[in-house]
Amino acid sequence: MIEVALAARPGDARADAFRRLAAGEISVHPVSPDGAGAMGGESAGRIAVVGQGISPEPLLESGAAPEFVQFLECQPVFCRLPAGDGAAVMATPSPALAPIAAEFALGLAASVTRAGRMPRPVTREGVVALAGDDQALSALKGVTAGIIGMGRAGEALSQLLSSAGCELLYQDRRTARQTFTTNSAARRNTLDRLLVNSEFVFVTVPWGPTSDPAIGEREVRLLDHSATVVSVSDPRVIHVASLREAVAAGEVMSAAIDAPAHSLPASCGEAGGQGRFVVTPGFATDFPPAHEEAAGFAVENVLRFASGEPVQGVLEILDYPRTGDPAFWSSQMSPRQS
């Protein structure tokens, strides 16, 4: 039987679902996180599964680091990113959760249009209902929507926005997959041009060295006064305080941010927000069916790794090059596009 270490807080619904779905094929051994929410440095064997809001850094930096780490959330908690040739393979359930997050992002966008209306109190069901509301979505037809981060969630969102009749721009540090560039009418832009030209700006980029933040104080000033920012990313990729001030001053039309409650900075304010600045605490993927999807994906990925098959949802951490031409953001830029 496959041995797996699981680090999770009590009451973690995804960890509970993982234990249940893994029964009979995977032997799960609890590894308690410390008071700061980090995995302990004890041995986890070859495979570790990390629950929501848990930092794996102590374990990854120990001499007993696992070969494979499967996260149960799409935005893992890191203060420092692991590196080196011997670093563990890490994966998130993003392939399973990206379509769910994209649908929620569309609902957030619809909620702040003139034709839409944010439900009060703010609920996940109310926001998602707007993603299928033709009247609310009609306000998106013909508008220019920019997507920052063309990963799995970005691609899923681009399909929904295209169906809603939006003109699409996107920005990504890496070259988008060829199937996307062939089948999509989205035009690649620099970040600055996307921010200046988009009526809706969707943020689906993961946190990392090149997105800390992706939208800082300077980038907020580039936004048009009629722009709306919608984010389903780690809140660290946006200078939230600057964005909130810009919305309050009327320099930006509105903003809607969704992120796990444990990662929301104080500058986000209370969940629900007021007026044109809306905050939802992880509603995009924090509900029972999403927990089941994430846990089932994690179980399948653990089985893949144990059998020597390629895992899915590999976490690719993009960093600035240490030497050479900075235009080559990643070794995976093939074919290169500018």
Helix content: 25-40%
Structural class determined from secondary elements: alpha/beta
Count of alpha and pi helical runs: 11
* Overall radius of gyration: 20 Å
**What kind of sheet is the major sheet?**
7 strands, parallel
Low-pLDDT runs: 35-43, 328-338
The helix/strand order is: EHEEHEEHHHEHEHEHEHEHEEH
End-to-end Cα distance: 48 Å
Mass-distribution shape: elongated
Beta-strand percentage range: 15-25%
Mean pLDDT: 81
Count the beta strands.
Answer: 12
Strand order, largest beta sheet: 8-7-6-9-10-11-12
Can you summarize this structure?
By secondary structure, this protein is α/β, with parallel strands linked by helices. Helices cover 30% and strands 16% of the residues. The longest helix has 19 residues, at 288-306.
